[in-house]
Automatic annotation (TrEMBL):
It comes from Paenirhodobacter populi. Residues 1-25 form the signal peptide. InterPro entries: EfeM/EfeO_iron_uptake, Imelysin-like, Imelysin-like_EfeO/Algp7, Imelysin_sf, Iron_uptake_EfeM/EfeO. Residues 36-267 form the Imelysin-like domain. This is Iron uptake system protein EfeO. NCBIfam families: EfeO, PRK10378.1. Belongs to the EfeM/EfeO family.
Length: 275
């Protein structure tokens, strides 16, 4: 808890100091005020949705309804995955909500392993809600805490702008590899959410980027579309088919485009004067 407060305070101070020292000359910072406040709204909508969806997900677990909980698992996670660069600022909650078994000494058997993926393991592997009654309560407490903390947060502009690339790196590192949703194989839902979260940031910044580098916008728009076209093939009933149905050819296309997007989007901070 102490570490967390120090961390956010440091970020807030760094942000305030940046505003103060750059003063009136800080053209990029001023340009970013509009996109930043719009992004804050987007994140607030997502954390509110996360709380609502988690309430229903947890209710299904408390009722012992494995099938219902399974059907709610992937859609509930999406609002979290869309805003992951901001959620990750609260590393204690991010760990409690979204860690993987590999992060713990005793893996799935470790009592410190909590959150969505512990529950995913119970639903798909243990086929029971019994082992995760307490973890379900904890998850709801944690997402409510996340919502409250994010609502109080002054968003650091470099985190928001850097978030477009960070989300693509997340896709490359944990979704294409199929590491994240290994028990449920709902990886494509998370992929979509990370992708949408990245595109949201990019879209908000696009007018600023277009002024500086129109060719970048043309190229990046095409890469976003290429990824979306592949994802579209796997959409079904408002969601996605299992990750195992992704063909090797499509996996290669996704991987190539996502890595290009991650690399290109990582130049945005410099382009907008935040480095
Ligand atoms: Cu995640």
């Amino acid at each position: 808890m102490v570490a967390f407060h120090l961390k956010t305070t440091a970020l807030a101070l760094a942000f305030a100091a940046g505003m103060a020292t750059q003063g009136m000359a800080a053209e990029p910072t001023l340009d970013l005020v509009g996109p930043l406040s719009e992004y804050k709204l987007y994140v607030a909508e997502n954390t509110a949705q996360l709380v609502t969806d988690t309430e229903a997900f947890v209710a299904a677990i408390k009722a012992g309804d494995v099938e219902k909980a399974k059907s709610l698992f992937a859609p509930t996670r999406m609002s979290y995955e869309r805003i992951e660069p901001i959620a990750e600022l609260f590393s204690d909650l991010d760990g409690a909500i979204d860690a993987r078994a590999d992060d713990y000494e005793k893996a799935e058997a470790d009592e410190a392993f909590t959150g969505f993926h512990r529950i995913e393991y119970a639903l798909w592997v243990e086929s029971s809600t019994d082992p995760v009654q307490g973890y379900a309560d904890q998850l709801l407490t944690d997402v409510k805490a996340l919502d409250a903390r994010i609502n109080e947060l002054t968003f650091p502009p470099e985190v928001v702008v850097g978030g477009a690339a960070a989300l693509m790196e997340e896709v490359a590192a944990t979704k294409i590899s199929g590491e994240e949703d290994r028990y449920s194989r709902t990886d494509l839902w998370d992929f979509d959410a990370n992708f949408a979260g990245s595109e949201k940031i990019y879209d908000l910044l696009k007018p600023l980027i277009a002024e500086k580098d129109p060719a970048f916008v043309t190229k990046t728009d095409a890469n976003f579309k290429a990824v979306d076209d592949v994802l579209a093939k796997y959409r079904k009933d408002g969601g996605y088919v299992s990750y195992v149905e992704l063909t090797d050819a499509d996996r290669t296309v996704l991987s190539t485009r996502v890595n290009t997007l991650a690399e290109d989007l990582s130049t945005l901070r410099g382009m907008l004067g935040l480095n």
